[in-house]
Amino acid sequence: MDNKDAKILDILRSDARLPIREISKQAKMRPSTVHQRIQRLVENKVIEKFTIKLDNKKAGENFIVFMLVKGSTSDYIDAKFLGNRHIREVFGVTGEYDVLIKLKFANVDEFNDFVLNFRKGKNEIQATLTMVATANLKEEI
């Protein structure tokens, strides 16, 4: 990846729906060059997917929670867990806890149901610490 690819990525971050011609104008490159570079970025998995950013409130996901998890194993992190519609991001972290999870819910009741089911029958989970977001100052995909 070089400076030209970085410029294309910056433009796509602001609006991934821009036509190739507009990206090429902003990047000061020929449209065919931009197209080839985007294709290569996708093939090399620099770009994993093109997606959308929602307004959390309008999408009914304005109750955002960060959960730290301490566990004796990471067996609770499986495809079913990662496929849960509330789980948006999962990171392995250093320190007292092992995993940081970003979750989104419509309300506190939905969150409460999730937490009760998450901990149920999972003896390898030693502790969780949850933090509810009170303000969304900046969020990117």
Features:
141 residues; alpha+beta; Arc Repressor Mutant, subunit A; Alpha-Beta Plaits; 2 domains; elongated
Description of the molecule:
By secondary structure, the chain is an alpha+beta fold. It has 2 domains: 3-43, Arc Repressor Mutant, subunit A; 63-132, Alpha-Beta Plaits, CATH 3.30.70.920. Helix content is 35%, strand content 21%. The chain has 5 helices and 4 strands, in the order αααβαββαβ. It has helices at residues 3-14, 20-27, 31-43, 79-82, 108-119; strands spanning 63-71, 87-92, 99-105, 125-132. Strands 2-3-1-4 form a 4-stranded antiparallel sheet. The model has no long low-confidence stretch (mean pLDDT 92).
Question: What secondary-structure arrangement, pairings included, does this model have?
Answer:
Layout: H1 3-14, H2 20-27, H3 31-43, E1 63-71, H4 79-82, E2 87-92, E3 99-105, H5 108-119, E4 125-132
Antiparallel strand pairs: 1-3, 1-4, 2-3
